[in-house]
Amino acid sequence: MHHLEGRRKTPGERARGFTLMEILVVLAIIGIVTAGVLLSLNLTGRDPQLKTAGRRLLALMHYTRDQAELQTRNYGIVFQPRTYQFVVYSVRRNTWRAVREDDALRKRELPTGLSFQVAVDARRIVLRSRKHPISLIPQVMIYSDGELSSFKITIVRKSAGRAVRIEQNQDGKIIEKPLGVSGS
Q1: For the chain, how are helix, strand and coil distributed in percent, rounded to 5?
Q2: 156 within 8 A of 165, measured Cβ to Cβ
Q3: Are 74 and 141 in contact, with CB atoms under 8 Å apart?
Q4: DSSP states of 42-78 as a string?
């Protein structure tokens, strides 16, 4: 064994294993790939589409409530599984009609993967998909005095287990709150 100490090792005889630098590079690559996967799957707890859809509906409901009081007209919202439309009551025709005079209250569609669940007076409403609703009778009412019918509107992304709810609190304010899919 003594005779091998002074001799240089040939490339085939080098010590086997990884250097610290090689291990660090591999760990950095694994970390970057993992972060990319988490962000692409949106497992970080953020859902900008859900958040934007909830805030848009909340803002439009506040706006419509103000318009109802200013114009002394009754408004409502017609929901389908992925769309909603604001309607106004026509006293002359004794019927509900789409709001045509205000583009902010046009028919809107939720982004792909999001859907509505609506409860009125603590009863869940079955929403049906139709290109054009058979009737424009709203599920949620916004009265000319600023009062609202009792409602809970939930925007859900079932695939990610996230939801946001729009409802009226005890003070009469329309609020938004994040939820789990179960609605808790």
Answers
A1: 30, 30, 40
A2: no
A3: yes
A4: TTTS--HHHHHHHHHHHHHHHHHHHHHHHHT--EEEE
10 lies in some domain: no
**CA torsion, ordered 134, 138, 144, 145, to nearest 10 deg:** 160
Q: What is the pLDDT of residue 184?
A: 46
What is the residue type of 34?
T
- Scored b (16 or more CB within 10 A) or e, 79-99 reads bbebbbbbbbbeeeeeebeeb
Distance CA(145)–CA(165), nearest Å, equals: 24
| pTM over cut 0.85 | no
* Distance separating alpha carbons of residues 164 and 155, to the nearest angstrom: 5
Asked if the structure places residue 3 within a domain, the reply is no
Same domain assignment for residues 20 and 63? no
Mean pLDDT of 113-122: 92
Q: Quick one: CA dihedral 34, 35, 40, 41, positive or negative? A: positive
User: Which residues form the domain of 167?
Assistant: 48-180
Q: What gap in Å lies between CA 152 and CA 128, rounded to an integer?
A: 17
**Are 175 and 93 within one domain?**
yes
> Considering its fold, how many domains does the chain have in total?
2
The larger pLDDT score, comparing residue 45 to residue 82, is at 82
